[in-house]
Structure of PilZ domain-containing protein:
Amino acid sequence: MPVSTAKRDTEKDAIKLENIRSALKCIRVNHRRTVVWPATLYVGEFEFRAMLYDISLGGVRLKLPLPLANGTEASVKIKNQVTLNSSVVWCAGEFIGLKFSDPIEAVRKALGDLSTGLQ
């Protein structure tokens, strides 16, 4: 294997490892509920349809076939009902973790009935 290819593979592995570490810092801070809900992600002037797979009062995990850099600010509209400000905290394959920017009580109020079962 040429040195340049080995170096690229090592760099890719380092990026994947850092993404996993970032994800682990976010996991299980809040009680999560598994869901399958439609979502719309707004990044700047762009709008992306996505599927939300779990939710907590701290953020969401959604599937989007587009990688986004950690720290990217976005808004996520959940079930065409409520839009919350967030930022990307991890990205692994087609899955993205978003952390809500607002305090938990504001998120709970905004989610209304959607927050049932979340603590």
